[in-house]
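Progress note, sequence design subtask.
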C-alpha cells in the first residue's frame, strides 16, 4: 500500500517535493482547532495543585479566601478564578539579628556572613550608658496562615521590627555587665514574652518558639579594657573564694580547740572539787579520830608528816648536841659504809 501521490518504487523524493506535500496536507487543517486544544490544556493544568507535607494552601476566589487545604493533591477552579498561596505552617522559621547564615549543611561547617554589615542591628545602649554588641535569633511557627497572609502587609519585616524594638528596650533597662554575664536567660525570656504579646495583638498568626542570645560582647574598641575588668573580677572572686575556704577550714578548727579547752577546764574544775571534797572528808575523819585519842592521833600525824618530808631528801645528817666535832663522812645512799667501820646513828626523840 502506497500513499497518494507517492513516487514510484525505487525513486527517492526530493526535498522540495516533501515540503510541497506537507503544505498541501496543512492547507486543509483549521487553526481554530489548535487554539481550542491549547486552551483545554491550560484549563486542565490550572485545575489542580499539590501541597507539600510541611505546607498549608490558602485558596482564594477572585481574591477572597474560601478555604484552606492540607498536604496532598487538590483541585480548584481554573483560569485565575481561584488562586492558591502555599504557607509553610509545619516549618520552624528563623530570623537572625546581627549576623546572617551563608551556608549550613551536615557535611560542612556553618558559614556566617561578616557581622560588620549588621552592626546597626546588634549595637545597643544599656541602662548604665554602655554600648554592647548583642546577636540573637528568633524562631517561630505560622499557626494561622490566613492571618499571616492578610492581617499584616509584610509579616516577616513586622516580626523583625518588633523584635528589634523590644530587644533594645529590654537590654536598655539592664546593666551592661548583667547582660554580658548573668542576665542573658532573663533577657531572652522577657523579650520573648513581650514580642509574643505584640504579635498576638497585631493578629499575625505567628507563635514564637524561642528567642535566644547567640553572642553578647563589648564593641571591638573596648574589648581590651573589658577583658581587663573581667580578669580583675575573676581575681576578686578567686580571692574571696580562697578567703572563704581558709575561713571554713580555720573556724571549725578554732571551735574545736575552744571546745577542747572548755572540756579540759571543766574536767580540771571537777577534779579539784572532788579532791577538795575528799580532803575535807578525810580531815573530818581525822578530826573525829583526834577527838577520841588526841595523843595517838597527834603522834601518827607527826610521823606521817616526817616520813613525807624525809622521803624527798637526798641526804641526811644526824648531829648529837653533845658531840663537839662532825662525823667526817656518813654515806646514806644504797646502804654503803666506810671500810672497817659501820655507821652508828644516834639521836634523841623529840
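Output:
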Amino acid at each position: 500500500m502506497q500513499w497518494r501521490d507517492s513516487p514510484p518504487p525505487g525513486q527517492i523524493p526530493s526535498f522540495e517535493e516533501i515540503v510541497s506535500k506537507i503544505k498541501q496536507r496543512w492547507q486543509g487543517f483549521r487553526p481554530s482547532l489548535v487554539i481550542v486544544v491549547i486552551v483545554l490544556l491550560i484549563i486542565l493544568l490550572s485545575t489542580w495543585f499539590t501541597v507539600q507535607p510541611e505546607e498549608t494552601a490558602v485558596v482564594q476566589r477572585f481574591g477572597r479566601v474560601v478555604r484552606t487545604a492540607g498536604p496532598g493533591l487538590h483541585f480548584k477552579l481554573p483560569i485565575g478564578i481561584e488562586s492558591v498561596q502555599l504557607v509553610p505552617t509545619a516549618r520552624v522559621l528563623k530570623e537572625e539579628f546581627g549576623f546572617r547564615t551563608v551556608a549550613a549543611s551536615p557535611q560542612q561547617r556553618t558559614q556566617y556572613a561578616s557581622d560588620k554589615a549588621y552592626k546597626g542591628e546588634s549595637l545597643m545602649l544599656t541602662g548604665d550608658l554602655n554600648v554592647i554588641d548583642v546577636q540573637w535569633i528568633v524562631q517561630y511557627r505560622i499557626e494561622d496562615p490566613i492571618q499571616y497572609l492578610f492581617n499584616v502587609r509584610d509579616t516577616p519585616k513586622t516580626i523583625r521590627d518588633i523584635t528589634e524594638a523590644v530587644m533594645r528596650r529590654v537590654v536598655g533597662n539592664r546593666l551592661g555587665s548583667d547582660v554580658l554575664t548573668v542576665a542573658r536567660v532573663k533577657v531572652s525570656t522577657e523579650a520573648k514574652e513581650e514580642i509574643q504579646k505584640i504579635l498576638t495583638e497585631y493578629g499575625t498568626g505567628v507563635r514564637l518558639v524561642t528567642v535566644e542570645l547567640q553572642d553578647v560582647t563589648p564593641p571591638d574598641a573596648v574589648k581590651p579594657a573589658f577583658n581587663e575588668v573581667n580578669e580583675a573580677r575573676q581575681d576578686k572572686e578567686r580571692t574571696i573564694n580562697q578567703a572563704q575556704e581558709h575561713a571554713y577550714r580555720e573556724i571549725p578548727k578554732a571551735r574545736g580547740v575552744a571546745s577542747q579547752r572548755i572540756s579540759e577546764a571543766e574536767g580540771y574544775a571537777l577534779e579539784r572539787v572532788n579532791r577538795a571534797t575528799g580532803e575535807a572528808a578525810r580531815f573530818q575523819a581525822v578530826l573525829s579520830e583526834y577527838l577520841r585519842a588526841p595523843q595517838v592521833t597527834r603522834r601518827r600525824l607527826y610521823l606521817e608528816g616526817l616520813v613525807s618530808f624525809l622521803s624527798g631528801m637526798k641526804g641526811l645528817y644526824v648531829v648529837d648536841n653533845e658531840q663537839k666535832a662532825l662525823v667526817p663522812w656518813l654515806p646514806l645512799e644504797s646502804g654503803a659504809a666506810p671500810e672497817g667501820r659501820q655507821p652508828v646513828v644516834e639521836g634523841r626523840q623529840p
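The first strand starts at residue 48 and ends at 51. Work on this subtask will continue into the next period as scheduled.
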